[in-house]
Amino acid sequence: MKLLFIVNPISGDVDKEPFIKNAKELCLKYGIENRFFKTTGKDDEEKVNDIIQKFVPDRVASVGGDGTTLFSAIALMEEKIPMGIIPLGSANGMAVELGVNSNPIEALKDLIMSSMIKSLDMLKINDKYYSLHIGDVGINAEIVASYEKDSNRGMTTYAKYFLDELMKIDPFEIQVEANNENTIEKAVMVGICNSRKYGTGIPLNINGNPMDGKFEIVLVKNLNTQFLINAGLSKFNDVFYMKENITAISTEKAILKFDHPRLLQLDGEVIGKFDRLVVEIVKGATMLITSKDNQYID
C-alpha cells in the first residue's frame, strides 16, 4: 500500500509532529510506503496535485480539521483515490459526523484496515467554491472571520468572538429559490448544510446526511437566550432542538439572495462577501474510507 498524508501543521494549534512520528513508525512496521505533504498556504493545490501524480497513492490521510478535510477532498475529486480523516483540528466536525475515531493513531489504523469505501457528497457554490461539512452566512461567518485574525486558536477563542457577535445580532432578509418554490424570511444566520452538527456538537441540521445526494438550507430566525440554551442541550439530545426557530429546505440546488453582500464561510474558512449564492450538490464527489461507526452507514 502507498499512503499519502496531507497535513495542516497549524490546524487547531495542535502540534502534529508526535502524530507524524508515530504514523511513520506504524507504516514502517507494516511495510506501507508513505509520503507526507505539509500545507503552507502557498501553492498548496499545485504542489499536492504534483505529488499525487508522481507518488500515485492508494489511499490518502487528511490530517487536520474540517478545512484540511475539504482541501484533501477537492484535490482527490478527479483522481477518485479514497481518503480517510485523521482528526487533529480545533473543531473536527466532519470527523465526528462520520464516526471517525477521536484518537489520531486509532483513526489511522482504521484508515489502513478498512475495506469499506463509500461515496461522500460535496457542495459547489457559485461554480467555484466547495464545502463538505457546513457553511453559513450571518453571525457564525462573522465569528469565524474574527477567529481567523486571532493568533490564538481553540474553542475558548471561538467562544470569545461568539459572545462579541451575540451583542450585535441584526436579522437580515434572505430569499431562497429551491424545489420550484420561493421562500423569503428574515434570519440571523443561513446554514448551507451537507451534514448535521458544527464541530462544537451543536446541531444545525438535524435531518442532514452527507451521503444522500441532497443538502439543506437552514434559516435561523433568532438567537435568543432560550434558543442558545436549547441548542446546547441538543448536543446531548436532539429532542431539545427548537424547530419553530428554524426553517429547513432540503434540495439538490438552491439560489440564495441577500439584501446586500454578506460574509460567507465554508468548513471553517472565510470566503468573502456575496449578495447571491448558487449552491449545488455534487453527488459522490469523494471516495471516503469509513466503517460501521459511521452513523450514515446501514
Characterization of the model:
With 298 residues, the protein is of the alpha+beta class. The protein has two domains: 2-116, Rossmann fold; 129-283, Tumour Suppressor Smad4 (Sandwich). The chain has eight helices and 14 strands. The strands form two sheets. Strands 5, 6, 7, 8, 9, 10, 11, 12, 13 and 14 form a ten-stranded antiparallel β-sheet that branches. It has a four-stranded parallel β-sheet with strand order 2-1-3-4, sandwiched between helices. A hairpin with a 3-residue loop joins strand 5 and strand 6 (129-131). The longest helix has 13 residues, at 17-29. Residues 232-236 have low confidence and may be disordered. One of its GO terms (molecular function) is ATP binding. Residues 1-129 form the DAGKc domain.
Helices and strands, with pairings:
Layout: E1 2-7, H1 17-29, E2 33-38, H2 44-55, E3 59-64, H3 66-75, E4 83-87, H4 93-97, H5 104-113, E5 116-125, E6 129-131, E7 134-138, H6 139-149, H7 155-166, E8 172-178, E9 181-187, E10 189-193, E11 215-220, H8 225-234, E12 246-251, E13 253-266, E14 269-290
Give the tags:
single chain, 298 residues, alpha+beta, Rossmann fold, Tumour Suppressor Smad4, 2 domains, 8 helices, 14 strands, elongated
Distance from N terminus to C terminus (CA atoms, Å) equals 28 Å
Task: Estimate nothing, just give the exact number of structural domains.
Answer: 2
Instruction: Count the DSSP helices.
Output: 8
List low-pLDDT spans.
232-236
In CATH, the topology of the largest domain is named Tumour Suppressor Smad4
By CATH, the architecture of the largest domain is named Sandwich
Sheet/helix structural class: alpha+beta
**The biggest beta sheet, please?**
10 strands, antiparallel
CATH class of the largest domain: Mainly Beta
- Beta content comes to 35-45%
Q: How many beta-strand elements?
A: 14
Q: What would the average pLDDT be, to the nearest integer?
A: 87
What is the radius of gyration? 19 Å
Q: Helical content, roughly?
A: 25-40%
Shape: elongated
* Secondary-structure element order, N to C: EHEHEHEHHEEEHHEEEEHEEE
Protein name: Diacylglycerol kinase catalytic region
GO molecular function: ATP binding; kinase activity
Pfam family, one: YegS_C
Domain DAGKc: 1-129
